[in-house]
Amino acid sequence: MKNKNRVFIATSLDGYIADKNGGIDWLDSIPEINQIDTGYNKFMSEVDALVMGRSTFETVCGFDIDWPYQKPVFVMSRSMTEIPEKFKDKAQLVKGTLAEILEQIHKKGYHRLYIDGGNVIQSFLKEDLIDDMIITVIPILLGNGIPLFADLPKPLNFECKKSIVFLDKIVQNHFIRRKT
Amino acid sequence: MKNKNRVFIATSLDGYIADKNGGIDWLDSIPEINQIDTGYNKFMSEVDALVMGRSTFETVCGFDIDWPYQKPVFVMSRSMTEIPEKFKDKAQLVKGTLAEILEQIHKKGYHRLYIDGGNVIQSFLKEDLIDDMIITVIPILLGNGIPLFADLPKPLNFECKKSIVFLDKIVQNHFIRRKT
To answer: Nearest CB to B158: which of A13, A125, A159?
Structure first.
């Protein structure tokens, strides 16, 4: 099966995934978004596993909800030595370079990966390892915060294949990496 | 007539309007864009005048083409003392606070304004003076550059009313300021 690394994420209109304190309350600036289908379930059905960093993992662990993923979760972290007991059946730690980590995950039979969290997405982009990105823009200008994108060793071309406006407010753009 | 301040601009996928050296060569990463109608003429027909900063004005003056605007151009600049002789029938200098500048322009009968250039757009956003923004996203990640958006004293809510994909590559999103 072809390996694919995919992103599905929400940003503010000015490209932030969290405010400067890491908060995501602004995602609720349009509360109706929780009542509509923005394609998350379809996207999830198209991936085999998730790859995230420590910070995203710990955020998810801290949510006061049941574990939200039905697919295996791989946590990339240099600093973490093991997954907390409570989550050992939910997630596994992976270490090494991105190439090594991907090799480990592919060997286990997971090829279509949901790459999540700002730092991890940025690391993948730095090595040109992202194939497509579905970015939902919550139309608020925050003014500052934690950006989705960061420095790159070289520019990367994408193509926008699809765009959907939800609720006359939110726009979701689907970008595919163009390799020429 | 109702006063309106509007933006029509292209950014990279990571939100830059120019690369770190001020260059805009990357706008040509999809050269076919010059052969299609992205709504610029329609937008221009809906504004009465342009407002830009010194840097955008000097960039336009430097283009090796005929003067591109059929509408009056107001150049906001603290440092400029007069418009160069060659462009005196094309543009006029305006000074003062944004409120003062807008009052001057409105008094001359221009109410629907095309606000152009990163610094000027940022100044207008800081005072919550932008009514709508048509942003064309050229799907390239530059990694760094001159951003369209900057710090704000408070978050600003918009609504995306329309989105168009051009050439299966470029997406143009139309955001309207939501005041509640």
So the answer is: A13
